[in-house]
């Protein structure tokens, strides 16, 4: 039985959570920016309040005793990561974002009095 736990006070995009979920592990982490984008509470993992040790312990104990839920969270977490954080998908989104910026800059040069 494996459970990935990341109690954190501050994260960007928690790559460790992404990697654990991609491996099909159920994830328990704190409800902070970054983590909540990777883990959908009670859908793909469990989010606990920041600095709440009792909630963290309760989440670990509950998940440790529920094999079916661990399996379900791990499966759904993996699916969520593959759908939303695939490297090729992220690169395509980034390329599209830069293309939009470039288009706006070109439009601003053509029509300087109409800012896009």
Report on the structure:
With 116 residues, the protein is mainly alpha-helical. It is elongated, with a radius of gyration of 19 Å. Strands 1-2-3 form a 3-stranded parallel β-sheet, sandwiched between helices. It has 5 helices and 3 strands; from the N terminus they run E-H-E-H-E-H-H-H. The longest helix is centred in the last third of the chain and has 24 residues, at 87-110. It has 2 domains: 4-85, Glycogen Phosphorylase B (Rossmann fold), CATH 3.40.50; 86-116.
Main attributes of the structure:
116 residues, Rossmann fold, 3-stranded parallel β-sheet
Please indicate the count of domains.
Answer: 2
Q: Tell me the series of helices and strands, N- to C-terminal.
A: EHEHEHHH
Overall geometry comes to: elongated
**Number of separate helices:** 5
The order of strands across the largest sheet is 1-2-3
Poorly predicted spans: none
Give the integer mean of the pLDDT values: 91
Fold-level CATH name of the largest domain: Rossmann fold
CATH architecture of the largest domain: 3-Layer(aba) Sandwich
Helical fraction equals 55-70%
Find the structural class using helix and strand composition: mainly alpha
Percent in strands:
5-15%
* Major β-sheet profile: 3 strands, parallel
List strands and helices in order, with pairings.
Layout: E1 4-6, H1 15-22, E2 27-30, H2 35-38, E3 46-48, H3 53-64, H4 67-84, H5 87-110
Parallel strand pairs: 1-2, 2-3
Helix pairs in contact: 1-4
